[in-house]
Amino acid sequence: MSAAEGPLVVGVDTSTQSTKALVVDASTGQVVASGQAPHTVSSGAGRESDPRQWWDALREALRQCGDAAHEAAAVSIGGQQHGLVTLDERGEPVRPALLWNDVRSAPQARRLIEELGGAKAWAERTGSVPAASFTVTKWAWLAEHEPDAVRATKAVRLPHDYLTERLTGQGTTDRGDASGTGWWASGSESYDAETLAHVGLDPALLPRVVRPGEVAGTVRDSHDLPFSKGTLVAPGTGDNAAAALGLGILPGTPVLSLGTSGTVYAVSRHRPADPTGTVAGFADARGDWLPLACTLNCTLAVDRVAALLGLDREAVEAGGAVTLLPYLDGERTPALPNASGLLHGLRHDTTAGQLLQAAYDGAVHSLLGALDLVLDEDADRSTPLLLIGGGARGVAWQETVRRLSGRPVQVPEAKELVALGAAAQAAGLLTGEDPAAVARRWDTARGPVLEAVERDDETLARISEVLSDAAPLLERGAEGR
After folding, report:
1. What residue stretches are annotated with the Carbohydrate kinase FGGY C-terminal domain (predicted)?
2. Per-residue pLDDT tens for 282-341?
3. What residue numbers does the annotated binding site for substrate cover?
4. Taking the model in full, what pTM does it have?
5. Active-site residue numbers?
6. Greatest C-alpha distance within the chain
């Protein structure tokens, strides 16, 4: 282990596919140890995981960190948003967690929007129009399809809440992750009694919302992790809010994250309320806001297309006029939860590489369409677009974003930004600093800037036209299966 200048902190990223842990020097931001362990996710109609495997993966990731984890003075958990974790009276899972990309609750989402005043009322109350990813729709689905599980539930948590509670023994969450549930009112920054009553969820089952900068608790006696008793535990937050902390972004800087899902977001000092539902009006982990647009289909969908074509993911070719909408898991932006993938414009001279490029174009198109809605009106449109996530270092991803955005693109050198953001939050507990200021001090956004190129308006217009013409087909895509 490298010698550290200051106290050590641990930042955790519990994502859809794995849990990662970083031990970080709070003074310099140097990563002195790291570990990672995988999760399993069910296939088929639903997307579910047993929360207990997240704890097992955390144990393994910290074991890989060695003695450095034992020396940590504070820890914070960043986690996948929206997931519904139901616990019994012993704190054990009633059933596997329903994950963010489980879209079985699309009918419940539509019904809840109608029953509680329509999209505009939802946006004004919670900051967002609930989609099938939101926790409130998953609870409604569970109540309808598994009432015995609902009756057995004595606590409702989000994924990061579950791990934090196992550390401290206390049920807590933060405003950033709570804002993605659909039952947290962004105007009052409290749980919304009307929504909870409507879906039959007792507010006593929900965790306490810890304020930014507040200590969520300390590591308790009975645990099997390498933390000392009394180690400080930060509030934690959702993955996107943690990544925003990890970058230390200021209002007006856009971020495009290329992971299993794709997201575009920016910090804002204005509470968002988009009645179209394109932009989710999330809170950030500091006290500001994090308007965000999300697609379900990003790197995983494009990699699947590459595999079907027998190509390396970088084997794209320019040219042609083929359009591929890679909605392999339904879609959230646009709101087409029942959609499947669609290919249009295929010709004899279309190459496999052009098909693969079309998949990249289709995945990026929706995110860039939401970019102007995410940014405040006075934001500088020449500010580089920060490209992060698993796909950010892929040349094909970088060039597609450059060509379709017409903006300069910056690729931060720092990896594991969710875990780094969690570490910055933990460091802020020790130093009294704003976690975003900690990340800026660590210079986490440092990286090469790719100059802007002329925007490919022709491709953007073609994809938009195909999407518009195919909307009726996409809306009924899964119903005939």
Report:
1. 312-427
2. 999 999 999 999 888 999 999 999 999 999 999 999 998 999 999 998 888 888 888 999
3. 81-82
4. 0.88
5. 239
6. 67
